[in-house]
Amino acid sequence: MTAQNSATPPVPIAVPTAVQEDGHRRPALPRGTALATLGVLSFSLTFPSTAWGLESFGTWSMVSLRLLIAALLAGVFLWRGRVPFPDRSHWGGFAVVVGGVMIGFPVLTTLALGTATTSHAAVVVGLLPLTTAAFAALRTRRRPSRAFWAAALAGAAVVVVFTVQQSGGELSRADLYLFAALLLCAAGYTEGGRLSGLMPGWHVVGWALVLCVPLTVTGTVLGLTLEPWHLTVHGVVGLLWVASASTFLGLYLWYRGMAAIGVAKASQLQLAQPLLTLVWSVLLLGEHLSPAAPLAAAGVLVCIAVTQRARS
Fold this sequence. Notes:
Radius of gyration: 19 Å
């Protein structure tokens, strides 16, 4: 959900169809593909926009404002759609989604970006689809094939070797933040996937954001009071993008697109996300990529592709 911004749970919604000239019905793929692509594009800009936002705001102000703005947007969509409040039996699941996706992942990745480059973070968080798949397998007690687990472990090994090599032989504090973010977000995505089997996925995202409002209001007030801040064009644009596009609208587009074209096809589009983030880090932030960054990202993508094939 994000800050998704890398692995999104499946949404079992019927595939929309369109009527051809010969009277036969066909899946409405072009529109769904466009929506899913826009979702991936918005996710790929999450880390660069966060880095821009940190030019104007402190860590806690940035995270709180991001979630508060996204929650206001979600509230409007839920109100306009007259979406009922979740049943009490689902509150435990929503607590996991809120703790992992809406709070844990943004806080930890923002802390990491205080010292790590966005390209470094993109490679590490590129492991999120594999981590989520592993959590889902444990949560549902399914037994993926040996090829799946081999690819998942290979992807994890690539990321660990990359982070150790980039950090001078040991894991930095930023790496620990990123790995903790992976675990929390994967748990939240897995629980969100379960809830998405009971209601539309964007309802899950919307209500999870709205349920954060008491915390985000408190965090915003305390953050803006205790942390120094000064408005810049980069800072404001970064905050607005990560709040509106990455945290809510990106997920909204992603879920709509995935519902139209199916989980398998959408997941293939998302394989480009880490590499896109590397491109944005160069174009928008002027970062210089080490040769290891694109190689590690490509290695992770290959492992993800193998796990997708093994799962299907």
